[in-house]
Automatic annotation (TrEMBL):
Keywords: Membrane, Signal, Transmembrane, Transmembrane helix. Residues 1-18 form the signal peptide. This is Ig-like domain-containing protein. The chain crosses the membrane at residues 294-316. The keyword Transmembrane applies.
Length: 323
């Protein structure tokens, strides 16, 4: 860290004649920062002066106009609750420019997505589906009705409200890769978010007072990669613990030799060669096998507790986060 500060100091001093010194902090994925209990993510400036009292100037892809659902608070760029639904719009370069005592510098971070976001062309929903579970941040095309020349109007409501979210649009474009190449009146939902969940009621009005109706429900699927990794590892530890508890005890063969099971495998080995510091003292209730079970369980419990503590601290981290 001292070497890094020394290099930065030399850069600022040798570039005092320049108006701004540009320093690249490298890449950062959207999934990397911890999410606060309020659903916020933070992008820090990482400037040289930790207690910089002056203003922070943030720019996105060279523009002073920042993306929606963001704000600057205490020098850090905050992605507000619900920003995960439009995360594809945040990909790009972020520059944090400050006028420090050593000179003026811009600190750049490149934000990217670790998991790709699928567009509506990859997510086509058939007209016969009545219940949908859409992934947050992805886009979808929902087939509502087959197109007809007798069309007059198409009206949809969400939870009995006819004012739909701004990311809901309608289209009757020809679908690609369909066998019948038919035309459909479609609903296009871009960047699915919490506002898109609920019950949709759509009415297609045709000539001669003929109508067609369709009702379907939309729920949102959201999984935090870090949380899922913690839960997956905890589940693995629990499974291993259960396997350790169910280890078979040593058995005695016809020739009188004892055999102990090798943990988590289906094979057994002679008790005399089963780890030289373990000795089978009994016959059917071998102490070496019992001791091994106990130690395996203790290790797994300790690992599970550490993972659970890491998970809880990760959730609370941003509550008391400091620059």
């Amino acid at each position: 860290m001292t070497l890094g500060f020394a290099v930065l100091l030399s850069v600022l001093l040798t570039s005092s004649d320049a108006r701004w010194v540009h320093i690249d902090h490298g890449n950062l994925t959207w999934e990397s920062p911890e999410v606060s209990p309020l659903g916020e993510r933070f992008l820090f400036c990482h400037n040289f002066e930790g207690d910089h009292p002056r203003r922070f100037y943030w720019r996105f892809n060279g523009s002073s106009v920042l993306p929606e659902r963001t704000q600057i608070h205490k020098g850090r760029l905050t992605f507000l609750k619900g920003a995960n639904a439009i995360r594809r719009r945040f990909v790009g370069f972020y520059d944090c420019c400050v006028r420090e005592s050593l000179g003026s510098a811009c600190y750049r971070t490149h934000l990217s997505l670790d998991e790709p976001v699928l567009s509506e062309g990859r997510n086509v929903v058939g007209e016969d589906i009545a219940s949908l579970e859409l992934v947050e941040g992805h886009s979808y095309l929902l087939r509502l009705f087959a197109a007809t020349k007798r069309f007059e109007s198409l009206v949809c409501s969400l939870n009995s409200k006819f004012r739909l979210p701004p990311n809901v649009h309608f289209s009757n474009d020809r679908m690609a890769k369909t066998r019948d190449s038919a035309l459909y009146y479609q609903m296009r939902i871009e960047d699915v978010g919490e506002d898109n969940t609920g019950i949709y009621d759509c009415t297609l009005r045709l000539r001669k007072n003929e109508t067609r109706t369709k009702r379907f429900s939309v729920t949102e699927e959201f999984q935090s990669p870090k949380m899922m990794q913690h839960f997956a590892l905890l589940s693995l530890l629990v499974t291993l613990g259960a396997a350790a508890v169910s280890l078979d005890e040593a058995t005695t063969t016809k020739d009188g030799s004892e055999w102990c099971p090798i943990p988590l495998t289906g094979t057994k080995c002679p008790a005399s060669s089963f780890f030289h510091y373990y000795k089978c003292c009994g016959t059917l209730n071998s102490d070496c096998c019992f001791n091994l079970q106990v130690w395996v369980i203790i290790v797994l419990v300790v690992l599970a507790v550490l993972m659970l503590a890491s998970f809880v601290l990760g959730l609370l981290r941003c509550v008391f986060c400091r620059r």
